[in-house]
């Protein structure tokens, strides 16, 4: 609003300039040290299959990508209120009293949307976070205007719609046909669900969740332990991979299949984080299982030792001896699909005295 108010333009320019200078001075050293590595890794990650459909910036899929995300996130009752709010916003723009406010809201919505849609080929849901306050204001304005226009009847209708939406999405008390729920966009909810190892329903967000067969890794470790005489504490080290494998995913699926939950064993994943530091040569051999994934490890700032560890592991998988992996046996290897254009290998190593 200060940018639209002539009396406040100088003040906004002054404080905005100081804020930009401060932010730049804080961020500049980090980008000077690590900027090239981050850019190179981002360029490599641009070939992931989840961003390929947006490479054609003039396509319908690209133009509607964020719109579909917003619609799916709002659900149809709030979407109806947002449409009403947007119509009223355009209508009030004709009135001098509301002209500046309406213009500000429209600029807040459309300029970031167009920039994110046509300036960047890679698409991620988190990029539209700056739009959410504007969408919330427009939606709440639509609800308020509907209640003013319809009074008691409108309030009752809105209340019933809101209650139905809350009950369906929040608790699953109303069982609609699956096709109807999908049409009404009520199938992506956080209510009561039946969680299974194959299709947990919720958990890791896109694109991380789309390692479709990552559950095989946790299943193998569980089966292997069930047929062994391993001790009460099992240490699993997952070598973090930038696209996208961490101990969190392995632990998530492991709990779903009962590993570390239905027996007396304690499963420790802490080495997965500790090996990012300098003394990884002493830490990694303490693990009972090592899980590794081929592919880009990202810039060194994300874990300066990860590329070296990955190179040693890959060489050991190819038969090279004389490494710390001599104390381990390669017991499992599979391809993970669903994210990268080229399928990558995930390997499980087991310490030989287990």
From TrEMBL:
Transmembrane segments: 12-32, 65-91, 103-121, 127-146, 153-174
Record keywords: Membrane, Transmembrane, Transmembrane helix
Species whose genome carries this gene: Candidatus Kerfeldbacteria bacterium CG15_BIG_FIL_POST_REV_8_21_14_020_45_12
Keyword hit for Nucleotide-binding: no
Superkingdom of origin: Bacteria
Name of this chain's protein: Glycosyltransferase RgtA/B/C/D-like domain-containing protein
Keyword Disulfide bond: no
